[in-house]
Design brief:
With about 325 residues, this protein is of the alpha+beta class. The chain is about 60% helix and about 10% strand. Helix 1 runs antiparallel to helix 2, helix 3 packs antiparallel against helix 4 and helix 6 runs antiparallel to helix 7. The relative contact order is 0.08.
């Protein structure tokens, strides 16, 4: 970066000196020399302009990547220019360090949230089992208190079964197979999705401009199905429900697929927890659906984000890099 600043300063000094020189040459009537000096001045100005435009393009690339949470960002100089290459290397190193810090912080936050949820769920099942089994062990087994004993054993069985289901869901989450990628047409993907959801209020828009993605079709279809099912539940109490699925135009190296609804929306205080394993706001939910979606997208080198306003609806965005 210091080398780049030094070269820019030299360009500015050169422009200033040649401007003064041209004025003096014109004043002296040396027209040919002043023309040559003007051409050199023009070349210096054009070269400085190209340097600035290269920097602006890199900054735009940086801003676009950060806008879509692209943490796999790297820079390469399109020109054989020592100062630009030095600046590019410095910028790439800074982004690498930034990416490492962000990933470490996100990983730590994810572990903390997961531990809190696991502890909460396990304690909810273990505490009544321990308390009830202790109470039953202190009672003497007689014909009179047999119904009470039976009821207590049924409660223990029910809570133990719930804990077993919780562990099974955890196994599903940790044994997700690696994606088997192949070229998949977004248009065909959405056309097949249309056949699964025939409800009038579910609008799956077929894009005019097709895109081909290197993805595991089965896994991505499951992600979209989960999101649409969640959207249907969110619109359950809405008078005029509307769910829209479409591919959004974006940069040439990216593809965005959105699932938007006009349902109840998500409370701001739980918005950052919905992708945490086993976290759910539903009375009968397992809390692994959105977590699986997040994991599948991460394994595809993409991302899933959400924007939601209570009373207006939610929009989930699948980003494929």
């Amino acid at each position: 970066m210091k080398r780049y600043s030094f070269i820019v300063a030299l360009h500015i000094i050169g422009i200033a000196l040649f401007s003064v020189g041209i004025f003096l040459l014109v004043d002296a009537g040396l027209w040919f020399s002043s023309l040559m000096a003007f051409l050199i001045l023009l070349a210096i100005a054009i070269h400085l302009y190209r340097l600035q435009m290269m920097q602006i393009r890199m900054m735009r690339h940086l801003a676009e990547s950060l806008r879509y949470d692209d943490m796999m960002l790297s820079f390469r100089s399109p020109y054989h220019n020592r100062s630009m290459e030095d600046m590019v290397n410095e910028l790439s190193e800074a982004m690498k360090n930034f990416r490492t810090r962000v990933l470490e912080r996100n990983e730590m936050e994810a572990w903390q949230k997961l531990i809190r949820v696991l502890t909460h769920e396990i304690m909810n099942s273990i505490t009544p089992i321990i308390s009830l089994s202790e109470t039953l062990s202190e009672r003497e087994m007689t014909e009179k208190n047999y119904p009470v004993m039976r009821q207590g054993m049924q409660t223990i069985h029910r809570r133990s079964k719930g804990l077993l289901e919780f562990v099974e869901n955890y196994r599903k989450l940790t044994r997700l197979p690696a994606p088997v990628r192949c070229p998949v047409s977004v248009r065909e993907l959405l056309q097949d999705l249309q056949k699964l959801f025939s409800e009038e209020y579910i609008h799956i828009e077929i894009p005019q401009t097709n895109r081909t993605l290197q993805i595991d079709r089965t896994q991505i279809e499951q992600v979209l199905i989960n999101l649409i099912k969640n959207a249907k539940e969110a619109c359950g109490k809405v008078q005029n429900p509307l769910i829209e699925v479409k591919m959004n135009p974006t940069a040439s190296w990216q593809c965005l697929i959105t699932v938007q609804d006009n349902g109840e929306g998500i409370l701001p205080e739980v918005l950052d927890k919905i992708f945490v394993p086993f976290f759910t706001t539903k009375t009968s939910g397992s809390g692994i659906g959105l977590s699986l979606c997040k994991q599948i997208m991460n394994r595809h080198g993409g991302n899933i984000t959400v924007q939601s306003i209570v009373g207006q609806g939610s929009c989930f965005t699948l980003q494929f890099g």
